[in-house]
Amino acid sequence: MSKAQMSMLTTIDYDETALAGLTKEERAVFLAMQQDELQHTLSGVDLQLSRYKINKDLCQFVDESGETIKELVGVIVYKDKVRGYWDRSADDNVPECSSIGGVTGTTRNGETRSCANCPYNQWGSAVDEKGEPMKGKACKEMRRIYLALKGTAVPIFVTLPPTSIGNFDKYISARVTKKITDLARETKITLASEKGGKFTYAVAQFALGEPVSPKDQLAYYELRKWAKAHADRTPVEVEDYDATAAETTQVDEDENPF
User: Fold this and answer.
1) Interhelix angle for 24-42 vs 3-13, to 10°?
2) What kind and span of H or E run contains 10?
3) pTM over 0.90
4) Predicted confidence band at 15 (pLDDT cuts at 50, 70, 90)?
5) How far is CA 181 from CA 51, 60, 73, 171, in A?
6) 188 has which bridge partners?
7) β-bridge partners, 54
8) Which of 6-10, 121-125, 198-202 has the lowest mean pLDDT?
């Protein structure tokens, strides 16, 4: 881990208020100890970033400890498209084909195919439990967002299902129009309950947060490399698509892989 990354982690965990009780000499020793301790803690493990899920019934996010959060506030250090196609008749949750990056898919047998030309990525390719055609796509497009949250030492990630992609793309497009990069401002994410037919959705809503200082942007830039490495080695799972807690479903009949 680079010095910039370690500096960011130390800053997040130990701000000036927490160090107020130490003398100048003790503070220098403590911060040096923390950097050494971080390196020791990270050694010998392949760090797994925490996945936050969406509970559509509560319309809140849920972390891996089960704690619910109404709003996520942090800096988007990395984001990526992912795709997954699941066979309804399969006896497991392994995707028949998946893609990290959304350009090239890899089947469970190791074969590759172009996502743009794949028949499962065309509208009308989805089928219901009886094998009848539906208007949706058999292959589901999603977004993974890696956020450096306030009060956390490493980024977390949350996967947006198809119902939230439109809002996310509009938010990013509006930022780009104003020349606001991902690292320049915090992002606030909340969930709003929406209904479509007989189904209820928890749809992500996005808003700009506070500006990020140039110094912190440099540190978040280093964290991006770390998050990307995690994203590249994390396979697409059914949890990415059905990213809800307590076995709830936030997508409609045309977007349900099972």
Assistant:
1) 120
2) helix 3-13
3) no
4) low
5) 24, 26, 16, 11
6) 73, 207
7) 61, 244
8) 6-10
